[in-house]
Design goal:
Strand content: under 5%
Number of helices: 24
Mean pLDDT: 87
Structural class: mainly alpha
Shape: globular
Number of strands: 5
Number of domains: 2
Order of helices and strands: HHHHHHHHHHHHHHHHHHHHHEHEHEHEE
Largest sheet: 5 strands, mixed
Helix content: 55-70%
Oligomer: single chain
Strand order of the largest sheet: 2-1-3-5-4
Length: about 675
């Protein structure tokens, strides 16, 4: 009589030594899927929901946030031409000084739901949730470990500058989402050779879209993306180079179509390109928003001779740890660098296609290239730019921690983990000590937890399982308590103006913008003001400043709205922020003379006089700081226009705001 072995025994007998690694890998993958259904998926859902709550909580408190971009969002919701070009007003007199893709989701939301702070900012918050989810997926794919992805996602979600930017209307939120997605696509191309081209085309296109969001900053990820594909992809080297050329071509197409249209569009029928001196998008790309950021030679910018005189803080290797920048992003920066070194040391013999090594190369390259650029760039630099470092730091922490856990029986891994925990606790103490009035007990608690946890990590082999799990929890507290406290403080505080910062105000300073919270508090006397509300109020109005939007009143609104349909622009003002508050309050086009800081030669005096003669402008609103704002000098077009108006028309004062009626004729 024939007998049969149980399925498991038969399987074991049929498995040759050559197949055992594949079988073991399959079992691990099966365990991962089972893990998903029992614990990982609920944990991921909880992470995403908590992130959404953190980013959406009290979102409307910031009003228009950066009114410079808010006005462009409002204009884009009213006019498709303004939408396409990123114009500051619906009549398309001048554009913002960036490519417009970051404005498009917000403008579409406002077009659907009406003009409000929530309609404008909710897309930004959702981009934050999407960034956390994409980072989780990317890190999990490079480690085959869901918990590594969850740790990376949590670190990104709690990075203070990320909380700030995903609750604000600057371009950095969409830029971050696109760049994380580009890394994901590149990783998929490496892991799926048969579909490598389509993934690389997608990745290149995403970098191109990132360029249309914030121009040349997007290209800082190109070296690590190209390097990781050259090193880790399976095809032959010539094939890899060919694939990268295809990806580069897709990037050029994705970034270049808009640039080409703007360059070929007749200048007479499109808005002036804000931030340029010659009405050229190429000049803006390569100059003010390009190499000028590196060498400080930004003609017509604030840093090129305007307010602050180019004082953007001390450059150098320690710039990211200074009083202005440290609290934004540096909490886990030393840990990420150490974990990068340890991770490479442990995985160096795993082969060039090793998934974990691939992750270390791409995220480590991102961190080093972007971090060194920020550290040494001599041009305009603001603390919130450092959100570009947050995904790389978070990913390296997730990947590095996983590698140390997998090698926890190694003395190097044990001592390395203890060192990372202790060092992170010390870093948190330094950063928290700069805000001594903010939760003063927290810095001591973090240090104690970090020291105890580091000591127990060294002894982990002697500990029972329950204590070992407590050590893991202690490590998480030591590493995340500081940034989490800053993150909650950032989410619970209104932020307005052009240079917001995360967390409580710190002592010291690091140049223009150092220590400011972005709540109307501005360094170097650049102006103050609460967040605009979107409608006029009673009392005194303000004309705004270089970095803060103007505030209208009911009386000023009524004045501007009177017979507004008879004019192309209800009013004009020098500088975009001076114009923005009145435009947002009334919903009417208000021309921003000279663009952001009044130094762009748009319109010329002759053009402005022709607009007045043709009856296209109703009022001129005088600025408190005089014509030209920040960067303009005597003889600039904005100064010439201001002088001509004040000498030609009669002034009237409405709720503290000086207004000239340009329809009244020459006095």
């Amino acid at each position: 009589m024939t007998t049969f072995s149980p399925p498991s025994t038969a399987h074991q007998r049929s498995t040759t030594p050559a197949r055992q690694p594949a079988v073991a890998r399959a079992r691990r993958l099966w365990r991962g899927r089972a893990e998903d259904s029992t614990l990982v998926r609920p944990t991921l859902l909880a992470l995403l929901l908590a992130t959404a709550l953190l980013y959406l909580w009290g979102l409307g408190a910031s009003g228009w946030a950066n009114s410079f971009y808010a006005a462009a969002v409002q204009a884009g919701s009213e006019s498709w031409k303004a939408f396409f070009f990123g114009s500051s007003d619906a009549a398309s007199s001048i554009t913002v000084d960036k490519t417009p893709m970051s404005l498009w989701p917000m403008s579409l939301s406002v077009r659907l739901f009406g003009l409000s702070s929530w309609a404008m900012l909710v897309p930004q918050a959702l981009m934050g949730v999407g960034s956390v989810g994409l980072l989780y997926a990317t890190v999990r794919r490079t480690t085959s470990n869901a918990w590594a992805g969850l740790l990376a996602g949590a670190v990104l979600a709690l990075t203070p500058v990320a909380v700030l930017m995903f609750r604000f209307n600057n371009p950095d939120a969409l830029l971050t989402l696109f760049l994380i997605a580009a890394v994901y696509a590149t990783i998929r191309a490496i892991q799926s050779p048969e579909r490598a081209i389509r993934w690389l085309v997608l990745g290149g296109s995403l970098v191109g879209f990132a360029f249309l969001t914030k121009m040349l900053q997007a290209f800082l990820v190109l070296p690590p993306l190209a390097l990781v594909y050259l090193v880790a992809a399976q095809p032959k080297i010539l094939t890899r180079l060919k694939h990268l050329l295809i990806a580069f071509g897709s990037m050029i197409v994705a970034a270049g179509w808009w640039i080409a249209i703007v360059e070929m569009w007749p200048a007479s029928s499109r808005p002036y390109i804000g931030g340029s001196q010659n009405n050229s998008i190429l000049e803006l790309t390569l100059g003010y928003n390009g190499f000028g950021r590196l060498n400080g030679n930004e003609v017509g910018s604030v840093g090129g001779g305007g307010v602050g005189g180019g004082n953007w803080g001390e450059t150098g290797i320690l710039r990211l740890f200074g009083s202005e920048i440290g609290g934004q992003v540096a909490w886990l920066l030393p840990a990420a660098l150490v974990l990068l070194v340890l991770g490479v040391w442990f995985r160096q013999r795993a082969g060039r296609s090793d998934r974990q090594l691939t992750g270390l190369v791409v995220w480590g390259g991102w961190l080093l290239v972007t971090g060194l650029t920020f550290s040494f760039m001599a041009g305009i630099f603001h603390a919130y730019y450092t959100i570009a470092l947050a995904p790389a730091i978070a990913a390296l922490v997730g990947i590095g921690a996983t590698i140390l856990w997998e090698n926890r029986h190694s003395l190097v891994a044990t001592l390395g983990a203890a060192f990372v925990i202790a060092m992170t606790g010390a870093m948190s103490y330094v950063l928290l000590d700069r805000t001594s009035d903010f939760m003063p007990w927290l810095k001591y608690a973090v240090v104690v937890v970090a020291c105890v946890t580091a000591f127990l990590v060294v002894l982990h082999r002697l500990l029972p399982r329950r204590v070992a799990m407590a050590v893991v929890a202690g490590a998480l507290v030591a590493m995340l308590a500081g940034p989490a406290a800053y993150a909650v403080d950032t989410a619970s505080t209104a932020h307005t103006g052009s240079i917001p910062t995360a967390g409580p105000s710190s002592t010291g300073g690091g140049g223009l913008g150092g220590g400011g919270r972005g709540t109307g508090q501005r360094p170097m006397g650049l102006g103050t003001g609460a967040a605009p509300t979107g409608q006029g109020t009673t009392g005194q109005g303000t004309t705004g400043g270089l970095l803060t939007g103007s505030e209208s009143t009911d009386a000023v609104d009524t004045l501007l709205e009177t017979d507004a349909g008879s004019y192309t622009w209800a009013a004009t003002a020098v500088g975009s922020n001076s114009a923005s508050g009145y435009q947002l309050a009334t919903g009417l086009p208000v021309m921003a003379i000279g663009g952001f800081n009044g130094s762009d030669p748009s319109p010329t005096l002759e053009q402005f006089q022709q607009y007045v003669a043709d009856g296209e402008i109703h009022y001129f609103i005088a600025s408190g700081g005089g014509g030209g704002r920040g960067g303009s000098a005597t003889g600039s077009t904005s100064t010439e226009i201001s002088t001509w108006v004040t000498q030609t028309f009669e002034a009237q004062t409405v709720d503290g705001v000086t207004v000239y009626d340009l329809s009244s004729g020459i006095q």
